[in-house]
Design a protein that fits this description.
This protein is mostly helical. Helix content is 59%, strand content 0%. Helix 3 packs antiparallel against helix 4. The longest helix has 18 residues. The chain is globular and about 40 Å long.
Amino acid sequence: IDHCIFNRCLMNGTAHLVEDFAAPSHLCGVCLRKLQWRLGFDVKGRYASLATAFSDMGMEKEQKWAQKQYDALAKVVGDNQAK
């Protein structure tokens, strides 16, 4: 998957460590869809796993963000695990 040119996301290209450390820890909608299409994972399940992983690592801000994404998807797709 190429670098993101659409939004500010994890897939943006970086030229040095300062840019690496400043990059967000999430994918934009375009890159998320490209990755999901390529790998075939469940997006809602990915956010649940990310929320758990971020929590385990003590990354509170990221955990809250992943949980918010999961909650928003749960409202739309419910308990169906549609890919």
